[in-house]
Design a protein that fits this description.
Layout lengths: L5 E9 L5 H11 L3 E13 L2 E7 L2 H14 L2 E6 L5 H12 L8 E4 L17 H8 L5 E2 L3 H8 L6 H15 L2 E5 L7 E7 L2 E7 L10 H14 L4 H17 L2 E3 L2 E3 L8
Parallel strand pairs: 1-2, 1-4, 4-5, 5-6, 6-7
Antiparallel strand pairs: 2-3, 7-8, 8-9, 10-11
Helix pairs in contact: 1-7, 2-3, 3-4, 5-6, 7-8
């Protein structure tokens, strides 16, 4: 077994470097993993605007995955922006053909809407995501808005968020981390898994708004899982990494960006 874990990001390309596969690769590299990718879409964007989305043919996404798996021992797959019905089906078809005992862990960031409000998942694709990808996931990481959409109910406080994680976990049999960054008080996330119910709380960092936090968080969880940490350990380590990345943010022109290269405490 390689001493350097191999992780794959199946996601969109963010030309601004703050989210998508660019953020994932920075995170994998900093956390001592070898990052590989299967690009699903090319997104022309910056921190304030998504101008266009160009999706790749689903077969080309699968082709990227096939070639990487042929060459590398991928231990964790992290999915981000899948965008279309055909891409989701092709990604799931590829993953399901791998024997369940040998299948890599799968971390699903159900990317639905960008920070700027642009829809990143076609409406007719949501059901496919739920039926095809969620049941084979190791962990699903919805934010509050995504959890509300998945449950068709409002989440207004911490108890709602905790219950949402438990309900989604029971529904799909996967670990679920409901991220509470959009709640009013502390930055608290709730993990529900088969034998685990745990919360992760940090003080909210005021006055810092960056894009790519969801991508980076799920990529960090994937990297820590690939290193052999348990699910609860991986989420805790990733939460700490995210907090440091936000606190030590970079000021680039008029924007603030996550510091993916933050040093360990």
């Amino acid at each position: 077994m390689s001493s350097t874990p191999v992780v794959m990001s199946v996601a969109g390309s963010d030309c601004s470097g703050g989210a998508g596969i660019q953020a994932d690769l920075k995170t994998f590299s900093h956390l001592n993993c070898y990052g590989t990718t299967a690009v699903t879409c090319i997104v022309a964007e910056n921190p304030t605007e998504v101008r266009s989305i160009t999706s790749l043919p689903a077969k080309k996404v699968r082709e990227q995955m096939e070639l990487i798996f042929d060459a590398f021992p991928v231990s964790v797959v992290k999915t981000g922006m899948l965008y279309s019905n055909s891409i989701i089906k092709e990604v799931c078809s590829f993953l399901k053909q791998i024997d369940s005992l040998k299948r890599p862990k799968i971390v699903v960031d159900p990317v639905m809407v960008s920070t700027t409000g642009t829809k990143l998942l076609r409406k007719n694709s949501i059901q496919t995501l739920l039926e095809e990808l969620f049941p084979i996931a190791t962990l699903i990481t919805p934010n509050i808005h995504e959890a509300q959409l998945l449950l068709a109910k409002k989440i207004v406080n911490e108890l709602d968020a905790e219950q949402a994680a438990e309900l989604l976990c029971k529904r799909w049999g996967a670990g679920v981390l409901v991220k509470g960054g959009h709640l009013a008080k502390d930055a608290v996330d709730f993990l529900a898994a088969s034998k685990t119910h745990q919360s992760y709380r940090t003080d909210r960092i005021r006055g810092v708004k960056t894009n790519g936090t969801g991508c980076t968080y799920s990529a960090a969880i994937a990297a820590y899982l690939a290193q052999g940490n348990s699910l609860t350990e991986s989420v805790g380590l990733a939460k700490s990494f995210m907090t440091r990345a936000i606190k030590s943010h970079l000021k680039l022109g008029h924007f603030k960006a996550l510091n993916h290269y933050v040093v360990e405490p």
